[in-house]
Amino acid sequence: MTSRSLPGPPPGLLAQGYRQLMAAFPTGVAVVASFERDGRPWGMTCSALCSVTLDPPTLLVCLRNGGPTLAAVRHRRAFTVNLLHRDARATAELFASGDPDRFARTRWSAPAGSAGPHLVAAAHAVADCRVSRICQVGDHAVVFGEVYRAVQHHRLAPLLYGLHRYAIWPPPGDRAVGMVTGVPEPPHSVVVSPVDVLRSAGAEFTVLTHQPIVGQADAEQLLGLPTGQLLKTMVFRTAAGGFILAALPAGARVSYRRLSTVVEVPRAKLRQADPADLAALGMQPGGASPVCGRSGVVTVFDPAVAGMGVVYCGSGRADQTVRIAAEVLIQLVGPRLAAITAD
Ligand SMILES: Cc1cc2nc3c(=O)[nH]c(=O)nc-3n(C[C@H](O)[C@H](O)[C@H](O)COP(=O)(O)O)c2cc1C
Questions:
Q1: I need a surface site. Which of 98, 208, 256, 278 has the fewest CB within 10 A?
Q2: Predicted TM-score (pTM) above 0.70
Q3: Residue with the nearest Cα to atom 27 of ligand 1?
Q4: Domain containing 270: what range?
């Protein structure tokens, strides 16, 4: 029997049955994103995503015709696939809402060489893809993307969608994912927030909640915190992929020469972290903290910190500040104590 001779139900019934069929095939949830000609970011929630080939590493996404995201992908011939984590349901809803200002309401970055926006807070991993082919099928375009870079931002289980609702991979423990898929834990797998590190160490500290700030001037002017007690944390990435945290009094300037000597990394191989780097440490811009839940991070405190008494430092979040005794902080972090401020 050829397919031509197969009987077919009435069109309406077919659509309904097809929806039901596919609803019973749960998937992960992604936001496919790119940039328009004018540089404006666009992105949409997408579950029609699947792997096509390993060599070259190719995936496909199906995007509705006539939408701004597809238009941006067609223009740029490149896009990102942001795989949403379990806590990113609101982002999935936002990027399915048609809201023209969706990017004003979510944290994103565009690291050098990226194909499109990276949703650094909502995605556990992001793939940068260049378009290899676009096929028009009915009311959607099937876009094939060759993955040229994949970055892991968080070690959180993926968000799932199926049976017309969102779900979280059971059991909710993140380790289960690695075990089920056989994926080995990456070295930077566990990102515990700085506040959770302090809590689990039983340290005495308080958290001040306030409007989001971006730097020292905000901390002084918007929050009225005393300059002499503000602790500045600078985050650096090394060319080899390592992280360095440098903590010093907010009023002082870091000496790159001294810092690079202390950490034994040439100055040219040290760069200040961007938002994606911070996200990998569980931190937001404006919230860099001297306490880090990720292993393998080198932390240096200028000795002047020891004499600061009670300090205000980053919590990891832009809208919270930690108040803690400097000596407690030093005991807990166990940093290298070395002069890193400029004269
Ligand atoms: C869980 C979920 C998965 C979705 N998957 C797709 C998809 O694979 N392809 C698609 O075209 N639309 C999908 N949508 C709908 C789009 O996200 C929605 O139509 C969005 O507004 C399109 O963005 P645009 O206006 O930039 O085209 C999905 C929506 C949800 C809630």
A1: 98
A2: no
A3: 67
A4: 194-337
